[in-house]
């Protein structure tokens, strides 16, 4: 049940580069609300100034989300309307806001999405990779060993896999992906979307890695990495083994993890051990 006297919370998507990508409805909403909760008020100032929006702003970021949620919830209950924006794209997508939205909904306040830019959707739509089923995996871990474990866990997934990655780690991530998914698996690098140097390159992982390693410009700016799903049949047992090893190896030595996984799945100890060794490989 929504509370009748309360205001509304609008989740407003903002551009991921090109300022013209702010929708008419988003502009109207940002002008009409009583308050804009922004991930970084200084960052959002440029967008708001560009559209001559003078609505008051307040910060809501990962370090103050808990206490700000309570404060803003009270203001919503008192009848004010609020828009939530992040630095770029759709709030809550690898951005703060999840706890705030949950608090607001639990209080019976209406939450209204104002959709727009989102890097993963823009990248997928232009990648040429299958878009009927996909899995957004957020940011890849910064440590090589953790990244490899993520890739191992996902290598049998048939859906298109989508990752956000820092340009500093892009080449390392591509090299690891090439080893784990194989040279021939297709992938797409979508960089600087909607900006001057927008680049969307789809090819095999081997070609993509080679291209990025030879051109340092491809290791700059913001990027989304997409990897095509497998079309090879992998047994449910093999998938389960990878998944369990991915979890256990963060806590246990290789031999122990492999033995436990083999006994849970009923699979071969040697197979589990070989897989565990691959997952455990350090740089
Ligand atoms: N909320 C945003 C969205 O809707 O996509 C994502 C925010 S997340 C903190 C930032 C990451 O999104 C970047 O590191 C990059 O991986 C991706 N990203 C954002 N803008 C992008 C762009 N213009 N081109 C490519 N990737 C972008």
Automatic annotation (TrEMBL):
Residues 236-280 form the RsmI HTH domain. The keyword Cell membrane does not apply. Residues 9-208 form the Tetrapyrrole methylase domain. GO terms for molecular function: rRNA (cytosine-2'-O-)-methyltransferase activity. It is found in: Cytoplasm. One of its GO terms (cellular component) is cytoplasm. It catalyses: cytidine(1402) in 16S rRNA + S-adenosyl-L-methionine = 2'-O-methylcytidine(1402) in 16S rRNA + S-adenosyl-L-homocysteine + H(+). The keyword Cytoplasm applies. SUPFAM superfamilies: Tetrapyrrole methylase (SSF53790). PANTHER family: RIBOSOMAL RNA SMALL SUBUNIT METHYLTRANSFERASE I. Catalyzes the 2'-O-methylation of the ribose of cytidine 1402 (C1402) in 16S rRNA. Belongs to the methyltransferase superfamily. RsmI family. This is Ribosomal RNA small subunit methyltransferase I. It comes from Methylophaga aminisulfidivorans. The lineage of its organism: Bacteria, Pseudomonadati, Pseudomonadota, Gammaproteobacteria, Thiotrichales.
